[in-house]
Amino acid sequence: MQEVLEQGLAQVLGREVALTVAGRTDAGVHALGQVASHTGEPAPAWSLNAVLPADVRVLASDPAPAGFDARRDARSRTYRYRILTRRVASPFERGRSLHWRHPIDRAALDECAEALLGTHDFTAFTPTNTEHVRFLRNVLRSEWIDSEEHVLELWLEADAFMRRMVRILVGTMLAVAGGRFEAERFRELLLGAPRAEAGDTAAACGLYLERVSY
Asked: For the chain: N or C, fewer Cβ within 10 A?
């Protein structure tokens, strides 16, 4: 998305633009509340939307205070992960949620979510080959909700996230909810265990960057 926006800005403004985004997303991840910043005057949102592909839209494009940086100035980010839990897949959820046909122990999911609150070492929940040097993150919100029939959503808010952190957390929680991991083992992972001890990485299609707070 960043490259697409930079190309659109260059087309509208007539100059190269280096964009800073608040949250990086892997291919297949959805961004509903992405925030970006760049130097110079902003381009009108309507002008950008006229040249952007149909799956990218700018909701607002406004001047910001001098020195504003969409990434460094963010106080927290909120992600949502969506799971379709019925046995039969839905064509309307294709590419928008993880289809999980296996039994789920909901109490185990809630126990894992509660364990995430506070500051922990998330080394186990990011790829081993990483540019991160600090693995402590403060989780402000962590809860599973029933958003609609057969759909579960994990809502996570933290001061910062690491690459694939939410997706690995979801994959590990589902392992706990399926009886393959003990909840106590999940809590032990938050002490800085290696990546190999956590669960699989959940599919990108279920993940949404909901909002960035400043």
From this structure: C
